[in-house]
Design a protein that fits this description.
Structural class: mainly alpha
CATH topology: Substrate Binding Domain Of Dnak, Chain:A, Domain 2
Order of helices and strands: EEHHHH
CATH class: Mainly Alpha
Protein name: Four-helix bundle copper-binding protein
Number of helices: 4
Strand order of the largest sheet: 1-2
InterPro entries: Csp_YhjQ, YHJQ-like
Number of strands: 2
Mean pLDDT: 90
Largest sheet: 2 strands, antiparallel
Shape: elongated
Helix content: over 70%
CATH architecture: Up-down Bundle
Organism: Streptomyces andamanensis
Radius of gyration: 15 Å
């Protein structure tokens, strides 16, 4: 963490901002997919719902940790990438559902940026 003045942090790098944005987009996609699954009722598989919930919470927490420059953000990015990979796989089990396919794409994009960020922090 680089400081310009005591107690003042420098602006986020473009890579970190891109990662935060990918996390928040993924969080939104997971929340929307969960809502869609709940509206469908019994058709939603519990494994898919668990993956969506884990990914949604992990991406939100990961973005929060990066924004506040947590010393654990790198580790959180690695965990977030794993949660996103698992969620993308779960979403792909419902290939006829466009919402799930959009969610899988957001998860893949987030996993890629988080994996890259985990090695830079």
């Amino acid at each position: 963490m680089t400081h310009t003045q005591p107690g003042t942090m420098t602006a986020m790098s473009k890579e970190m901002q891109d990662c935060v944005n990918a996390c928040m987009s993924c969080h939104t996609a997971c929340e929307e997919a969960m809502s869609s699954c709940m509206q469908q009722g019994g058709q939603a598989q519990m494994q898919v719902m668990r993956a969506l919930m884990d990914c949604s919470e992990t991406t939100r927490m990961c973005a929060d940790m990066m924004m506040r420059r947590s010393p654990m953000a790198g580790e959180m990015c690695a965990m977030c990438a794993k949660a996103c990979d698992m969620c993308a796989e779960a979403c792909m089990t419902m290939p006829d559902d466009q919402m799930m396919m959009r969610c899988a794409e957001a998860c893949r994009r987030c996993a890629e940026t988080c994996r890259a960020m985990s090695t830079r922090m």
